[in-house]
Amino acid sequence: MEKIYCQGCGVLIQTDDPDKLGYTPKSSLDKETVLCKRCFRLKHYNEIQDVSMKDDEYLKMVSSIQKAKGLIVHVIDIFDVNGSLIKSLPRITGDNPIILVGNKMDLLPKSTNHRRLMQWLRTQAKEAGIKLLDVFLISSVKGHGIEELMGEIEHYRNNQDVYIVGTTNVGKSTFINKLIKHTTGFNDVITTSYFPGTTLGFIEIPLDDDSSLIDTPGIVNKQQIAHYISKEDLKLITPKSEIKARIYQLNSGQTLFFGGLARVDFIKGDRQSLVCYFSNELPIHRTKVEKADELYENHVGELLSPPNEKSLSRLPKLTESTFRISGEKTDIVFPGLGWVSISQDATIVAHSPKGVAVSIRKSLL
Ligand code: GDP
């Protein structure tokens, strides 16, 4: 086949694999303007589709942002801040100004204090070495906060391009699609001639005659639990609606299982409440620490599920980390799965699939 390039994003066209970059059906090859599926969907349905790639490919690709000038909009998943905050961001984006957008706010309890949460996000970013211009909280699915954010992007971008960056699954595409729909008259201006295709895989959506909004591919973070479980299980653990805190009064010597994917052992401390923030569909099971290993061995994949019997073989073994909590309300975070909030002094052993590192943080809520 003669080499054909997409007139949208510049990628090499292929007709074999619909899930890979550059796919277009054979029947579209004789058209005057050949577009890959991703650009075709954007042009005709005003819809961005997510593509993802490996870390090294990604870094190579996005390092071109360093040389460009523009506003960086870093979208993160508020339910998985540790897993979605890109710690190497300043290396990728150079001196360009960054704003942080916490998406999926609809999942957090309505009582969440927004100001505190924004302050907490600023601290998290600072600790990761990311200097922020501003922080916003939105829900792309519900449309909350989008209008205000658009106004601020317009203000901060100073007539320059806007780069949207994020790990996979944070809702980057949903966000961009909302932006597109939100801008009146925007639908009509998307034509192929607006896609200069300067950087492979970057999709450009014109903002005005001189500048564009640029969607970059989602970076894959291997610490995300999503990479160790089946699609079916991922659906189950991904919250779809506001998380209801589940509160357990626990004595030392007791264990909580979160499906068969994670576990906390309350080793030492006074009787107290453990407040659990996980998808409402993820079953939590209480037992004694001394019985927990045996229960897990005999019942993971059935009583302790997800995973189910089929997806069990994919799950790495659970590994332990010990945390001594004292002084302030602390969250024990299982990236991508949820967290347990503890208010009093305690020694806790947390178990998570190998590769998915548990961490603690000052309480989010
Ligand atoms: P991308 O990989 O970053 O482009 O993410 P997508 O836009 O494909 O979204 C990933 C998943 O998160 C999908 O299941 C979306 O429905 C969901 N999602 C995106 N935005 C939100 C949001 O604001 N709230 C909730 N609850 N889910 C969202």
Automatic annotation (TrEMBL):
Record-linked InterPro entries: G_CP_dom, GTP-bd, GTP-bd_ribosome_bgen_YqeH, Mito_lipid_metab_GTPase, NOA1/YqeH-like_C, P-loop_NTPase
Pfam families recorded: MMR_HSR1, YqeH-like_C
SUPFAM superfamilies hit by this protein: P-loop containing nucleoside triphosphate hydrolases
GO molecular function: GTP binding
Domain CP-type G: start-end pairs: 45-222
Domain of life: Bacteria
PANTHER family: GENETIC INTERACTOR OF PROHIBITINS 3, MITOCHONDRIAL (PTHR46434:SF1)
Name of this chain's protein: Ribosome biogenesis GTPase YqeH
